[in-house]
């Protein structure tokens, strides 16, 4: 007897309810023409902000910019918001736009495939539920899978250990000897937040980051009231911030030499906070500023001067049940390990079996690096759009700007298809290739490619598949309107 599977139909299926998925859902809801569902693997929306609850989790982009341009919110508590405030904003957006019924939580997509005959996408979730839709939108983001380091003996460590994106809040750090591995954006927030709790914190640094002052401060009640009464004032402040951040792209993409000024500021920041010349020396990066993400913190360096904090710059050789051993033979006895070792970013653009036309799996197609047209559509994958796809990440401004540009492009595509009676679009391979050649050409001179560092921006093949090599206003201009001529349409 064959089991009959119940299938749920929608016009649009969105995968992932983070900032990108929610933005897509809001625009579809506002337009009101399409049925849609957001399939979310977690038990609530929030994406990376739901997962990353580590102590000190906050955004290193100011909240006025790290929020939707169309949804001002007068409740930001600080210029750079902590995790809870950001989650509250996202919840507010879900309520305000009535997205609750559209978000199907606990639906971890394990496979999706294009059904050529039906002209539909079919998604299957871990639970065995089946969904079909005319359009598939991928908004799972690049930072959804924790990366753990390959260190001999890691599996033998007997104490608790976890990645920053899976913080175990029920285990106290009080009085323990804790190792933190990694000194990226997550680590520099975690370390100051936990350093005073424990007996000893050993911070394993492989490469020091460039750290600029964040100059974070609370948003005064008076300012919040002003924003409440006059939302246009908040919009104006947001616009000013946008251009301030955008101007930084000049140094990242056009004149890397301009980074020298910022470098001087970062060194001043370091020298001011750290008196010990040896420690200072260990914290000075030997690559160009901007090559890795420039970090912002007011409390990271001061935390490293605490008596109970040790900075270890030797590489980790191995671990056993309660020790971490370094390359020169030093041995640290530790009770607990926090891995602040980042994400499988480049690999995670296609996080599950994803079969396009002719059964081609996007994971295989992108094994050596993702490529898409305008970071949004992929040849061989009809009626499929990605938000925050290949080469759409930023080193200088808010990703929300990119998300809004892509969502606007997708809405324009749906609109054009309806007006012109098109049911199926697939980007022309030559358009995609030409676009990617241009992107890689432009990346050649940028600080990320010539700055002398290894970063998650560049994959194992040495190809930068994560960053947009230009200004965000250029990206928006390119995605302003969907052009059917770039696509095979039927
Ligand atoms: O990860 P990372 P992250 N031994 O990849 C080190 C976003 N984010 O979670 O530099 C020792 O930056 C590794 O060393 P190295 C943001 O986009 C945003 O901190 O490779 N160390 C590095 O220091 C960010 O870029 C916010 O030599 C090892 C660290 O682990 C992205 O998330 C906040 C090691 C990994 O740093 C990822 O940040 C937080 C080993 N074996 C994060 N293996 C906002 O505020 C790895 N490392 C918006």
Describe this structure in words.
By secondary structure, the protein is α/β, with parallel strands linked by helices. The chain is 31% helix and 17% strand. It contains 15 helices and 20 strands. The radius of gyration is 23 Å and the shape is globular. The protein starts with 6 loop residues before the first strand and ends with a strand.
Brief descriptors of the model:
alpha/beta; eight-stranded mixed beta sheet; 490 residues; binds 3-acetylpyridine adenine dinucleotide; five-stranded parallel beta sheet
In brief:
The chain has helices at 19-31, 48-51, 83-96, 185-194, 221-229, 231-246, 249-254, 259-273, 277-282, 300-304, 362-365, 399-420, 429-443, 447-450, 472-478; strands at residues 7-15, 36-39, 103-104, 109-115, 120-125, 130-138, 161-163, 177-181, 200-204, 211-212, 295-296, 309-312, 316-319, 323-326, 331-333, 336-339, 353-355, 384-386, 425-427, 487-489. It is α/β, with parallel strands linked by helices.
């Amino acid at each position: 007897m064959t089991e009959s599977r119940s299938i749920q139909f929608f016009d649009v299926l969105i995968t992932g309810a983070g900032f990108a998925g929610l933005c897509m859902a809001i625009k579809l809801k506002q337009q009101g023409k399409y049925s849609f569902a957001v399939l979310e693997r977690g038990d609530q929306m929030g994406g990376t902000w739901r997962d990353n609850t580590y102590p000190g989790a906050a955004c290193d982009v100011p909240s006025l910019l790290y929020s939707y341009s169309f949804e001002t919110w007068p409740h930001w508590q600080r210029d750079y918001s902590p995790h809870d405030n950001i989650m509250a904003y996202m919840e507010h957006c879900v309520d305000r736009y009535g997205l609750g019924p559209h978000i199907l939580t606990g639906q971890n997509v394990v496979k999706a495939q294009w059904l050529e005959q039906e002209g539909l996408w079919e998604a299957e979730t871990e639970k065995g539920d089946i969904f079909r839709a005319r359009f598939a939108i991928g908004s799972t983001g690049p930072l959804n899978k924790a990366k753990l380091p390959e260190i001999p003996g890691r599996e033998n460590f007997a104490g608790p250990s976890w990645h920053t994106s899976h913080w175990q809040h029920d285990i106290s750090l009080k009085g323990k000897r804790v190792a933190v591995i990694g000194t990226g954006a997550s680590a520099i927030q975690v370390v100051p937040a936990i350093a005073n709790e424990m007996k000893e914190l050993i911070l394993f640094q492989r490469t020091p980051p460039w750290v600029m002052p964040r100059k974070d401060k609370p948003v005064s009640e008076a300012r919040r009231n002003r924003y409440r009464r006059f939302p246009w004032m908040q919009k104006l402040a947001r616009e000013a911030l946008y251009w301030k951040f955008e101007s930084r792209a000049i140094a990242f993409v056009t004149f890397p030499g301009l980074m020298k000024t910022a470098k001087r500021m970062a060194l001043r920041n370091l020298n001011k906070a750290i008196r010990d010349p040896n420690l200072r020396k260990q914290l000075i990066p030997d690559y160009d500023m901007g090559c890795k993400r420039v970090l912002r913190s007011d409390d990271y360096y001061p935390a490293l001067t605490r008596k109970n904090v040790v900075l270890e710059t030797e590489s980790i050789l191995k671990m056993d049940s309660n020790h971490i051993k370094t390359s020169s033979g030093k041995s640290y006895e530790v009770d607990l390990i926090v891995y602040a070792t980042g994400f499988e970013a480049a690999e995670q653009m296609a996080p599950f079996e994803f079969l396009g036309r002719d059964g081609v799996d996007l994971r295989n197609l992108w094994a050596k690096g993702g490529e898409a047209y305008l970071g949004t559509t992929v040849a061989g994958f009809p009626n499929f759009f990605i938000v925050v796809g290949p080469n759409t990440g930023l080193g200088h401004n808010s990703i929300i700007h990119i998300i809004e540009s892509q969502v606007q492009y997708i809405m324009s595509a749906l609109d054009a298809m309806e007006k012109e009676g098109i049911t199926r679009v697939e980007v022309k391979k030559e358009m995609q290739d030409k676009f990617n050649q241009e992107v890689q050409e432009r990346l050649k001179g940028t600080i990320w490619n010539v700055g002398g560092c290894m970063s998650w921006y560049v994959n194992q093949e040495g190809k930068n598949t994560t960053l947009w090599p230009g200004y965000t206003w250029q990206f928006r201009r390119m995605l302003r309107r969907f052009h059917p001529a770039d696509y095979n349409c039927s």
